[in-house]
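RECORD TYPE: inverse folding
INPUT: structure tokens
STRUCTURE:
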């Protein structure tokens, strides 16, 4: 399994506290790049004033660090493009009856 896939598997363990869907399927992870032993992750939140704005990025960073090939994680919280429900996977939309 590729390192990026291992990171995605770890991120899929993190759920939005208000929805029964993991943040990867919600479309909150915009990009994952692996450069050597460093992961660069771009993510967003459903809204800028999300109640987990401080804790969720930390959980993502800690999850990526669980992958033994990763020694460092550069996590960028971005707001462009703004998140919308079209970014959710089909599985997430089914789970939420959308």
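DESIGNED SEQUENCE:
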């Amino acid at each position: 399994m590729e390192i990026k896939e291992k990171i995605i598997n770890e991120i899929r363990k993190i759920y939005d506290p208000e929805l029964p869907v993991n943040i990867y399927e919600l479309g909150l992870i915009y990009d994952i790049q692996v450069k050597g032993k460093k992961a660069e992750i771009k993510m967003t939140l459903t809204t800028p004033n999300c109640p987990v704005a401080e804790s969720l990025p930390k959980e993502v960073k800690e999850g990526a660090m669980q992958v033994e090939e990763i020694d460092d994680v550069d996590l960028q919280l971005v707001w462009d493009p703004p998140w919308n429900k079209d970014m959710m996977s089909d599985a997430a939309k089914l789970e939420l009856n959308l």
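NOTES: The radius of gyration is 13 Å.
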